[in-house]
Amino acid sequence: MIEKNKNLYKLDELPDYKVAKNYSDVRGWDVKDANNRTIGKVENLLVNKIAERVVYLDVEVDESIIEEGHNTYQDSVSAGVHGFLNEEGENHLIIPIGMSMIDEKNKVVKTNRIDSSTFAKAKRFRKEDDIDFPYELNIIRHYRGDNTIHSSNSVEGFYDREEFSNTTHLRDLE
Predict the structure, then answer these.
(1) Interior CA angle at 98 toward 96 and 103, to 5°?
(2) For a surface tag, which of 7, 30, 66, 150 has the fewest beta carbons within 10 Å of its beta carbon?
(3) Which segments in the chain show pLDDT lower than 50?
(4) Listed residue (13, 11, 17, 18) closest to 3, CA to CA
(5) How many CA atoms lie within 13 A of 60 on its CB side?
(6) Separation of CA 141 from chain center
(7) DSSP class of 162
(8) How much is the pLDDT for 171?
(9) Residue 168, pLDDT score
(10) Helix (H, G, I), strand (E, B) or coil at 38
């Protein structure tokens, strides 16, 4: 992806950014779904530099979730489904920061609104891949079960959505 079109940056790529003092750095923490099942670990935090904040958690998906979702999106595109398959090596997915909660005591990130089946069927990506805006739209549609989120949405104002509003953690960067 061309740098000028890049929308999201891993926090590790931005030496001038860090997690604010009053917030937990959740990298390395387990991620649990709505049923308290571990779905993976937070590997990185994804920042939108225009919004100047963390907007996604980059999660390395647990092998059991990958195995469960091996037939992801087998239905045809005409059936209203995305029509792509997860491939070997695609073991990361993103979670909008506003769809997670931090349990600092147990050092766990919880996603009370998303279950493991939803995660298993989510389109994943390779760790080294840049994330493009169409992928962001698809993942929001998938997690919300809402295909009315139209692809005419633009990056501008996108992070004002409720999925990214989180005033309790990881929002402010120094």
Answers:
(1) 105
(2) 150
(3) 1-2, 72-83, 167-174
(4) 13
(5) 12
(6) 12
(7) G
(8) 34
(9) 43
(10) strand
